[in-house]
Amino acid sequence: MTNKAGHNGSGSEDTFERYLQGELSLSEMEALERSVAARPDEAESVIAYSKLLDSVATELTHVAPPLDGAMRDRIISIADAKPISQVIRANGGQWTESGVEGIQFKMLYQDPDSKKMTVLARLAAGARMPAHRHDGIEECLVLEGNLWTDGVLLDSGDYIVTQDNTVHEDTWSEKGALVLLKTFMTDEILAS
C-alpha cells in the first residue's frame, strides 16, 4: 500500500487515518480503495478502523455536554458573523418596482462577476414586460398564476429556458403571476 507520498510501509496507518477522517483528496481516496480491494488483509484493517470510528461517534452523542443559553447564543453569533449560506425568508427581502407598471422584483442573489441574478418577479393581472433581449441564458419557473411568453402559456409549476441573445417580444400575465427568474443584469430592454 502507498501513502500520500507514495512510500510503502509505515505510512499506511497514517493514510488509513487520513482516509477515515476525510482528509484525502478524491484521487487519493480512490487509489486507497483500489489498493485495499486488491489486498483482503488490508481491507480488514480499513473496516476495523471504520467500525471503531463509528462506535466512537455514536458514543459522543451520549457524552456531549448540554449548552447553556449564553453559550448557544455565542455559537450562533459566530455562525451569523461568517455565514456559509444566505437565507431570505418568504417574508424577508424587499420588493422593488421594476419601472414597468404592475411588475415588481425581489432580488434573491446577485453575482457581481458574472452579472447573473436570481429574482422573484411579481406580475399583476394584465402586466406586460417590454420587448427585451437576453444577455445569457434565462431560466424561469412559474410559482403561481400564469405567464405568456411569445405565444407560449406557462402555468404554475411550468419551467422554460430561454437561450442567450433571444428576444422576447411579448411577455405578460393574464391572471397575475409569481415567477422565479435566473437571468442577467445586462439584459437589454428594446421597447417600453
State the gist of this model.
This protein is of the alpha+beta class.
The strand count comes to 12
Distance between the termini: 69 Å
Percent strand: 25-35%
CATH level-two architecture of the largest domain: Sandwich
CATH homologous superfamily assignment of the largest domain: Jelly Rolls
What is the overall silhouette? elongated
How would you describe what is shown here?
With 192 residues, the protein is α+β, with helices and mostly antiparallel strands. It folds into 2 domains: 11-64; 95-189, Jelly Rolls (Sandwich). 31% of the residues lie in helices and 30% in strands. Strands 1, 2, 3, 4, 6, 7, 8, 10 and 11 form a 9-stranded antiparallel beta sheet that branches. Strands 9-5-12 form a 3-stranded antiparallel beta sheet, with no helix packed on it. A hairpin with a 5-residue loop joins strand 2 (103-110) and strand 3 (116-123). The model is unreliable at 1-10 (pLDDT under 50).
Task: Give me some keywords for this one.
192 residues, alpha+beta, Jelly Rolls, 2 domains, 9-stranded antiparallel β-sheet, 3-stranded antiparallel β-sheet, 4 helices, 30% strand, elongated, disordered N terminus
SSE topology:
Layout: H1 11-20, H2 26-37, H3 40-63, H4 69-81, E1 95-97, E2 103-110, E3 116-123, E4 128-129, E5 132-133, E6 138-149, E7 152-155, E8 159-162, E9 167-168, E10 171-172, E11 177-184, E12 188-189
Antiparallel strand pairs: 1-2, 2-3, 3-11, 4-10, 5-9, 5-12, 6-7, 6-8, 6-10, 6-11
